[in-house]
């Protein structure tokens, strides 16, 4: 029996945590099994002691079956068998915000990330917010200038967790003016799809490689595959970069983007198509 | 004899004013005739007393033939024949920064703007920086939220000077995170081309409706003509808006965009094409 990959859910940071309004976290818990969910929280990106505990309390409030924060702080923590056992039986894993370099330097190449990749391929759902969102894909933005036009050397990339090599995530997107740095990063290699996540907004990337937006703001999709030209290869260090032919979509709640066909659709378009189909019958 | 329209030169604000490095203003003076240029400065947007005088000094430094700032402050000032005479013999007019509503409310529908439109059609070159840039086209952005995803009601439009109805200008573009509001404005009617001007960067829009970028940063071109869908008509007041299929280019010094063919070209592409053509001969 072949198993389906689990959801990959990057969240733009600052997600709503009041139980009543917590659309994104509630949706993640539902996908992970609802009352039967076993959630593991990895607060490694954060330097605050109570980050893991805060998410534990939140998911307890949703009455999931089990929630456990693993305070992984060192690479040797990543070999603790009792903690790996939690990951082996989890139905959902949540990576908190903080610093994405703490995630990659602490977890990279350890049994924890090996297990996360393997289990996600078999169906484990993995979400991350802010630094956690940056970390989920194969390529990760470490840092870069905000609020600027694309420039050479304005953004630093690093290998990430590696759940998919098709997207490049940037978070706090509009709030911190990160269009320029995401465009610069995509100019290095237009193969990847740029996913700019506003705060309190998530991309639920399903096993079919279609992502659906959830949350109070928007996800900006940058599709560089039709790029006619960029001067990234020849621009001066810190010089501005020409980019010709970027395709852009802004998607809100319910909007979808198919990573294979590169087709974006707003929820109202899907509804209209549905009505048209009904009209045909 | 038919005459060519003069250049229309919106500048993103904060343009370099040290004579040695003042690429944009020097280029404008050159186009207006260099040593033979007769420049009129209109400082109406500004509330600072010395704005007009500062530009006078600058253009004097460039040794143009004549420069004169007209301190138009009221609608009746717009009927002063001696000032209109200056406009009748000018080869270049420069609109300073400040508040674009001061420009439209003071100058709109007066002999001054009638004369500017008529003389631009006959060859007078007109530049504006910041508020002055916002004002040059038929449609003008009055105000709007910065640093946000496109939302309904986030941007207010007003009729402007009306030198062209093909573009919608926004200035201080990347510095103030105005992509969202320009996208929102274009979603109202995808016919217009959005021109997002970074500071110290200008679009020199020639009589052939090809614009060329000059300055230290970039111009972001938003071409909404291929838009598949936007939810602007149905979005809640202040709700986020879906936008599917926006085309975007970032152009730096020497890059061009043709408003008719909607074709963007980086300067290096033009050079390569030139070399290829040489190779053919």
Secondary structure topology:
The structure is a homodimer.
Chain A: E1 8-11, H1 23-31, E2 38-42, H2 51-61, E3 66-69, H3 81-89, E4 92-95, H4 100-107, H5 111-122, E5 125-129, H6 131-135, E6 139-144, E7 155-159, E8 167-170, H7 179-188, E9 193-197, E10 201-205, E11 210-215, E12 218-223, E13 229-230, E14 243-252, E15 256-258, E16 263-265, H8 267-280
Structure in a nutshell:
With 281 residues, chain A is an alpha/beta fold. Chain A has eight helices and 16 strands. Chain A has a single domain, classed as Class I glutamine amidotransferase (GATase) domain (Rossmann fold).
What does this structure look like?
The structure is a homodimer of 281-residue chains. The first copy, chain A, has 281 residues and is an alpha/beta fold. The first copy, chain A, has one domain (8-280): Class I glutamine amidotransferase (GATase) domain (Rossmann fold). The first copy, chain A, is built from 8 helices and 16 strands. Chain A has helices spanning 23-31, 51-61, 81-89, 100-107, 111-122, 131-135, 179-188, 267-280; strands at 8-11, 38-42, 66-69, 92-95, 125-129, 139-144, 155-159, 167-170, 193-197, 201-205, 210-215, 218-223, 229-230, 243-252, 256-258, 263-265. In chain A, the strands form 3 sheets. Chain A has a 9-stranded mixed sheet with strand order 3-2-4-5-1-10-11-15-16, with helices on both faces. In chain A, strands 8-9-12-14-13 form a 5-stranded mixed sheet. In chain A, strands 6-7 form a two-stranded antiparallel ribbon. In chain A, helix 2 (51-61) links the parallel strand 2 (38-42) and strand 3. The longest helix of chain A is centred in the last third of the chain and has 14 residues, at 267-280. The two termini of chain A are 36 Å apart. Chains A and B meet through helix 7, strand 14 and helix 8 of A and helix 7, strand 13, strand 14 and helix 8 of B. Strand 14 (243-252) of chain A pairs antiparallel with strand 14 (243-251) of chain B.
